[in-house]
Amino acid sequence: MKDVPINNVEILNILDEILWFKNPEVAACANAKKDFLSHRERMISDEYLQTLMDKGRNHDGFPEIVGGYSYSIDTGSFVPGADINTCEKILDNVANISFRLQEELSLKKNALFCYYPPGGYISWHNNANASSYNFIFTWSETGNGYFKYRNGKTGELVTIQDKKGWQCKAGYFGAYIDPKEYLCYHCASTECDRITVAFVLNREEMSVGMQDMIIEELSCEI
Questions:
Q1: Nearest CA among 179, 50, 196 for reference residue 124
Q2: Count of structural domains, the chain
Q3: Could you tell me which of 120, 114, 107, 96 has the C-alpha nearest to residue 170?
Q4: Could you tell me which residues come within 8 angstroms of residue 62 by beta carbon, excluding any fewer than 6 positions away?
Q5: Which residue range is the domain that position 21 belongs to?
Q6: 75 pLDDT more than 50
């Protein structure tokens, strides 16, 4: 995974529009699945990672638990009794921002739009079911969180510490048909409010050049 600086002011301005999620009315609609938070230590542990790796292809690629709230641009699943108008505004906002980022950066598809409360996390998984070159945009309120992945070539566990505000990571999630070193087992955890918005290209060779072009665009001060 590459840690990509975001210096493009136009992109930062679009990303900042996501921060309306800090509005108390929006938070009240989000089903943050707090009953899952107590499982965090086990689901992001080295032991659980090894369990998944031992499963091989029997691990489907999805995370077993997302200790947060994943906003869907298609359906949405809100707290029972949540204000319908606010829920609709949330989905409209998600769809609008996703489309604008895709258009500005020539990204293919929005793969994740997730809010993690303090104590939130996503369990170890490898996305082998959705192999692609990808971009992961993360906002952290204080920087007290991290993204961790296993380097498939060395076996090393690498932690990318969150930064206060926005940051971006770019990489490739391999499939089971790829050599094993391309599998990218990863998880994330936070002690503060955290938002992750992820996009994919595809797994074709031409996406390597496209990814490099997008990294350059994000890094340039425009």
A1: 50
A2: 1
A3: 107
A4: 125, 129
A5: 2-219
A6: no
Using only C-alpha atoms, the chain has a radius of gyration, in whole angstroms, of: 17
**Distance between CA 125 and CA 55 in Å, rounded?**
11
Q: How far is CA 105 from each of CA 38, 175, 199, rounded to the nearest angstrom?
A: 38, 24, 10
From 9, 13, 40, select the one nearest 148 (Cα to Cα).
Answer: 40
> For residue range 2-29, what is the model confidence (pLDDT) as tens digits?
999 999 999 999 999 988 777 766 666 6
**Could you give the maximum distance between any two Cα atoms of the chain, in Å?**
50
Position 192, amino acid: C
CA distance 10 to 17: 11
CB atoms within 10 A of CB 102: 14
Do 79 and 27 meet the contact criterion of CB atoms below 8 Å apart?
no
Q: Taking residues 61-86, report their average pLDDT.
A: 74
Token pair for 208: 């390597």
Place of tokens 């094993």: 180
pLDDT tens by residue, 205-215:
788 889 999 99
pLDDT (tens digit per residue) in 131-178: 999 999 999 999 999 999 999 999 999 999 999 999 999 999 999 999
Compute the average pLDDT of residues 192-214.
90
Question: Could you tell me the pTM of the whole model?
Answer: 0.90
CATH number where 94 lies: 2.60.120
> In this structure, are residues 71 and 94 in contact, taking their beta carbons and an 8 Å threshold?
yes
What span, in angstroms and rounded, lies between the C-alpha atoms of 86 and 65?
Answer: 26
